[in-house]
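During the reporting period the student researcher (J.K.) took over the structure-prediction task from the postdoctoral fellow and processed the backlog of single-chain submissions. One of the processed entries is reproduced below for the supervisory committee.
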Amino acid sequence: MLEISPLRPWDRVKWEVLARGYMAFYETTVPDAGYEETWQRLINGGELYGIAARLDGEVVGIAHYLFHANVWSAGTCYLQDLFVDEAARGKGAGRALIEQVAEAARERAVPRLYWHTRQDNAQARALYDKVTHYNGFISYVLPLD
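J.K. obtained the following structure tokens:
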């Protein structure tokens, strides 16, 4: 059975395995202390939210999201990270995580949920194309450090 719920303190170890998998996929390096800092920010509430997909009680996917202001609307929800263990892909966890974030956005009455992925992330894009449509925008990032 698939269940979506907030991250719980005892999810820490599995969350980090999945978070490291996400970072490795995007070829991003985070120092060990960065995982602890992010975990604390997610678990202590505030501006960042973390949820888990549990398949038969085991955490197989994670999503992180946040809300922010938008000049032209009542706000926006950004799904920053979404990652499902490779062995659990195709079982509905990714879609269920997106749907849970969308529900959280509806509860906050924000009219828009968005996320990014790499252009060549064909497996994820196959799911995303079923959930919504590609709007033609290209994202640019200017590192400031």
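The committee noted the following: The first strand starts at residue 2 and ends at 6.
J.K. will present the remaining backlog at the next meeting.
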